[in-house]
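Query structure, 325 tokens:
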């Protein structure tokens, strides 16, 4: 069944096994370093409003913390990126966990040498899913290009070289991305000698592998706290910061997880940082990842992820906000 990206979808779909597709040929993309920002202003999430549970303390393939997550909004699966057990941070080895929307684990895919996993996208591709994710990790374990990887259940894939992947911004040295399935755009966070910048592209640039000038390109504003994820909805970027509970991970106070919204037309903070108490009673509770999804009833949701549980048995917990202003 064919769907148009961004159309509202129901909360669950049939469970499907991972497709055994081969790795598509990769090429080099070229894009502009700067661009005028002229994205039509949209509603934004009110970050002061309550959060609600999607699920808590769900098991993943490995025992280490999740890094980020992404929705395949057509086939209705959730993909959670976790660190590989027994692998050093600098290796860039990831485990991608395929789950249903109740948090039930289905299958895994190991990606060796890809990157840190701060953010990625899961684009529907027929009955399968194409992961747009950083690749060619540098010596610090961060990806230096972006690659479209067909999800293949229970397999291991080595990273393509950066020269065989996509680098849409000239001079950028590190890349991650996240998708807005409602407004059909991809947001890219990239690193330059001058620091972190943000670029926004039409999603079609990624699906066609043909990169033009970004719709917006701006210096990331200074936001305090440990960066833990970002995403895009309409004309606003959302940025997650914070740390796990200190010590042994026992819940203490409200924690320090904050969400901030940024106007992509001006590159300035619109709201926040706003403290979120979602899952405040969970053990460890390290903020890890943001993503957007829209339900069949047309409700847009901003999802916030946390790595929870005890050391050696970390779990995935995901919440959402749904109030727009």
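Result returned for the query:
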């Amino acid at each position: 069944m064919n769907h148009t990206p961004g159309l509202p979808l129901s909360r669950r779909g049939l469970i499907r096994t991972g497709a055994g597709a081969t790795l598509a040929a990769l090429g080099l993309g070229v894009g502009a370093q700067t661009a005028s920002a002229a994205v039509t202003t949209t509603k934004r999430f009110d970050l002061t409003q309550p959060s609600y549970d999607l699920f808590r303390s769900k098991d993943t393939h490995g025992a280490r913390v999740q890094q980020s997550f992404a929705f395949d909004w057509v086939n209705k699966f959730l993909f959670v990126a976790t660190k590989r057990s027994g692998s050093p941070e600098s290796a860039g080895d990831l485990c991608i966990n395929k789950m249903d929307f109740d948090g039930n684990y289905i299958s895994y895919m190991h990606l060796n040498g890809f990157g840190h996993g701060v953010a990625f996208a899961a684009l529907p591709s027929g009955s399968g899913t194409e992961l747009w994710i950083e690749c060619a990790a540098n010596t610090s374990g961060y990806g230096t290009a972006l690659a479209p990887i067909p999800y293949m259940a229970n397999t291991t894939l080595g990273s393509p070289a950066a020269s065989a992947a996509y680098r849409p911004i000239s001079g950028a040295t590190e890349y991650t991305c996240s998708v807005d399935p409602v407004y059909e755009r991809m947001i890219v966070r990239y690193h330059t000698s001058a620091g972190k910048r943000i670029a926004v592209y039409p999603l079609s640039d990624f699906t066609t592998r043909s990169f033009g000038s970004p719709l917006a390109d701006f210096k990331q504003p200074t936001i305090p706290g440990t960066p833990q994820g970002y995403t895009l909805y309409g004309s606003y970027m959302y940025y997650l910061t914070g740390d796990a509970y200190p010590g042994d991970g026992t819940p203490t106070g409200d924690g320090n997880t904050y969400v901030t919204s940024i106007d992509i037309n001006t590159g300035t903070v619109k709201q926040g940082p706003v403290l979120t108490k979602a899952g405040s009673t969970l053990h460890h509770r390290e903020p890890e990842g943001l993503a957007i999804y829209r339900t069949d009833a047309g409700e847009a949701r901003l999802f916030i992820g946390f790595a929870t549980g005890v050391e050696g048995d970390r779990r995935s917990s995901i919440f959402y906000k749904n109030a727009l202003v």
